[in-house]
Specification:
- The chain is an alpha/beta fold.
- The protein is about 40% helix and about 5% strand.
- The chain is built from 17 helices and nine strands.
- It has helices spanning about 1-10, 15-25, 55-65, 80-85, 90-110, 160-165, 205-220, 240-255, 265-275, 280-290, 290-300, 310-320, 325-335, 370-385, 415-420, 440-460, 475-485, and strands at about 35-40, 40-45, 110-115, 125, 130, 145-150, 230, 350, 410.
- A five-stranded mixed β-sheet has the order 1-2-7-3-6, sandwiched between helices. A two-stranded antiparallel sheet has the order 4-5. Strands 8-9 form a two-stranded antiparallel sheet.
- β1 and β2 form a beta hairpin.
- It is globular and about 55 Å long.
- It starts with a helix and ends in a 9-residue tail after the last helix.
- The relative contact order is 0.10.
Length: about 500
C-alpha cells in the first residue's frame, strides 16, 4: 500500500494508462515503456525497441479492423492540425504520431537516458528490417534524450556459456559477425568518473562486459539530476531483465530499495516480476541451451564488492578524500553535549528525507573543512580522546538481516547539540531504524550470496544445469510453483 501510494503521488495513474494505450504501437510487440523500479524519485523503466514499418503497419491495420474502425493511436485529435490530417497516410506522419506518443510517455516519466543493448542498429530477418531503434531514427525524434548504445550479446550467445560448463570468464563475443553493426556510444560526461577504458569493449569477456555495463547504469541512476532511465534490447525479455534484475538486487543489497524483504523474498520478486511476468520464455531458452536466466543469478558472485555499490557512489560525491566515514562519526560524537557549534571549521546537521514519511534516503554526508592543517589537528586531538566512537555491529540472529542504518547528514549552521540526539548509530533503538538503510560492504556481499545460494539450490532441484525439452503451456506456472517451494516461501504439501 505504501508503494502504491508513493507511485500515485509520482504519476497520475489515469494519465499514465492513457499514455501507455496510445504509445504501445511504437515499440516491438507492443511492449511499451514500463516503470519497474522507483529509486530516489527516479523511474527505472524497461521496454522493447522501436517497431519497424512492417510491424507498425501490420499492428495498426489489425487494430483498426478489429476495433470497428477506430484506433487509439490516432485518438489525440486535439493535437492534429488540418495540415497534419491531410498528410496522415504518409509514412513519416504515421511514425511522427506513434513515436510522438512514445516520447510523451517517456517525458511524463521524466526519462532522459535511453540505454540500448542491441548489437544491431535494426533487427533484420529475411532481408527485411523488422525493428528499428532510437539511435537510427531518421527524423531524429529522440534527439532530446541522452542515447547510449551499449551493445550486449543476445540470448543465443549464452549457449556458449552453457557449453563451457557455465564459465563466463574468458568468453568473448565475436564482434566481427555480419549482423553486428551497432558500435558502443556513450556520452563522455557519463564515463568520466568510472575509470573504464571503453575503447577496449570488444576485448572484454562476458564477466567484465556485464560488470562495466552495470557500473554505468548505477552511475546514471545516482547522478545529481532527477531524470529516469530506460533499458531495452529487442523484445525486452532476455537482456533487459538481466540488467533490470541485477540493478534491483544490487540496490536491495545496499539497503536502498525493498528494505523489508528477506533474500528469498527479493529472489521471488525478481524472478516472478522482472523475468516471468515480462515474458521471458524460460522453457524455450532451456531447450536451446540459452541459459541467460541462470547466468543472471550466478553472476551475483561478481558484483558483491563495494565498487558496485550505489552507496559508495553517494559517499564519493560528498566525502572529502582526507576523511573517512568513521572519523566523521567520531567528530559527531565528540561534540555531543556542546551548546555551541563545533567550530568555525566544521558544521554537521541531521535532517530527515523530504521523501515519504517514515523513511530516510541517504543522499550524502557533507563536510566543510577549513583546510588540511585543521584536519590534521583534529585527528591528533581525537586519537587520544576517550569519547572516540568505536563503530561495531550489534549481534544479529542468524535468521534475520541487519536492520540498522545511518541517517542523512547535511551541512547546517545550527548547533550540533540540537541534532545530536537524532544521530543514528548501528545498534541504536529499533524505533529509530529508518525504512531504508545503508549496509556495509560485508553485509552487501552476504546478502547477495544468500540470494545466489537460494537460487542455485532451487534451480538444481527444479531444473538442473542441463537443457530440457519443451513443456506444455503451463510449464512456466509449474516451474514458478516449484521455485516457490524451493526457496521456502511455501511448504511442499499440496494446497
Amino acid at each position: 500500500m505504501f508503494l502504491i501510494s508513493w507511485f500515485e503521488s509520482t504519476v497520475q495513474v489515469g494519465k499514465l494508462q492513457d499514455l501507455i494505450n496510445r504509445s504501445k504501437m511504437a515499440r516491438c510487440r507492443g511492449r511499451f515503456v514500463c516503470p519497474v523500479i522507483l529509486y530516489k524519485g527516479k523511474h527505472i523503466c524497461r521496454s522493447a525497441t522501436l517497431a519497424g514499418w512492417g510491424e507498425l503497419y501490420g499492428r495498426t491495420g489489425y487494430n483498426y479492423i478489429f476495433s470497428g474502425g477506430s484506433d487509439d493511436a490516432w485518438a489525440d485529435a486535439e493535437d492534429i492540425s488540418e495540415e497534419d490530417s491531410a498528410l496522415r497516410n504518409a509514412d513519416s506522419q504515421l511514425f511522427d504520431k506513434v513515436r510522438g506518443h512514445d516520447i510523451k510517455l517517456l517525458r511524463y516519466l521524466s526519462v532522459r537516458y535511453i540505454c540500448d543493448l542491441m548489437v544491431e542498429n535494426k533487427k533484420v530477418k529475411f532481408g527485411l528490417n523488422v525493428t528499428s531503434s532510437e539511435k537510427v531514427d531518421k527524423a531524429q525524434r529522440y534527439a532530446d534524450f541522452t542515447l547510449l548504445s551499449i551493445p550486449y550479446p543476445g540470448c543465443e550467445f549464452f549457449k556458449e556459456y552453457k557449453d563451457r560448463d557455465y564459465t563466463a570468464e574468458g568468453l568473448i563475443f565475436n564482434w566481427k559477425q555480419d549482423y553486428v553493426d551497432a558500435p558502443l556510444s556513450i556520452p563522455g560526461s557519463l564515463t568520466q568518473s568510472l575509470n573504464i577504458d571503453w575503447s577496449e569493449y570488444q576485448s572484454w569477456d562476458l564477466v567484465q562486459q556485464t560488470q562495466n555495463y552495470l557500473k554505468l547504469l548505477i552511475s546514471i541512476i545516482n547522478s545529481d539530476d532527477d531524470s529516469g532511465l530506460l533499458v531495452h534490447c529487442i523484445s525486452g525479455w532476455d537482456r533487459t531483465p538481466l540488467f533490470i534484475s541485477l540493478l534491483r538486487l544490487s540496490l536491495w543489497a545496499d539497503g536502498l530499495i525493498h528494505a523489508s524483504l528477506e533474500p528469498s523474498e527479493i529472489l521471488y520478486l525478481t524472478v516472478a516480476y522482472d523475468w516471468f511476468l515480462f515474458g521471458h520464455m524460460l522453457v524455450d531458452r532451456l531447450s536451446k541451451g540459452e541459459e541467460i536466466f541462470f547466468f543472471c543469478f550466478n553472476f551475483l558472485k561478481h558484483i558483491t564488492s563495494e565498487e558496485f555499490s550505489a552507496v559508495k557512489s553517494q559517499r564519493r560525491k560528498s566525502l572529502p578524500p582526507s576523511f573517512t566515514l568513521e572519523e566523521i562519526c567520531m567528530l559527531k560524537q565528540r561534540d555531543r553535549g556542546s551548546t555551541t557549534s563545533l567550530s568555525s571549521d566544521f558544521s554537521l546537521g541531521m535532517e530527515s528525507s523530504p521523501g515519504a514519511a517514515g523513511s530516510f534516503t541517504y543522499e550524502a554526508v557533507e563536510l566543510m573543512p577549513a583546510g588540511a592543517q585543521a584536519q590534521a589537528a583534529w585527528r591528533k586531538s581525537c586519537a587520544s580522546s576517550p569519547q572516540a566512537v568505536l563503530w561495531s555491529r550489534a549481534q544479529q540472529s542468524e535468521d534475520r538481516l541487519p536492520s540498522a542504518g545511518m541517517g542523512e547528514v547535511k551541512s547546517s549552521s545550527s548547533s550540533s547539540s540540537t541534532h545530536s540526539d537524532n544521530f543514528l548509530r548501528i545498534g541504536s533503538s529499533p524505533l529509530e531504524v529508518p525504512r531504508s538503510r545503508l549496509v556495509s560492504a560485508s553485509d552487501r556481499e552476504s546478502r547477495l550470496e544468500e540470494v545466489r545460494s537460494a537460487f542455485l539450490a532451487s534451480y538444481s532441484r527444479t531444473i538442473g544445469l542441463k537443457a530440457v525439452p519443451p513443456s506444455p503451456s503451463g510449464a512456466i506456472g509449474g516451474l514458478l510453483e516449484q521455485f516457490v517451494r524451493g526457496v521456502g516461501l511455501r511448504g511442499s504439501s499440496t494446497l
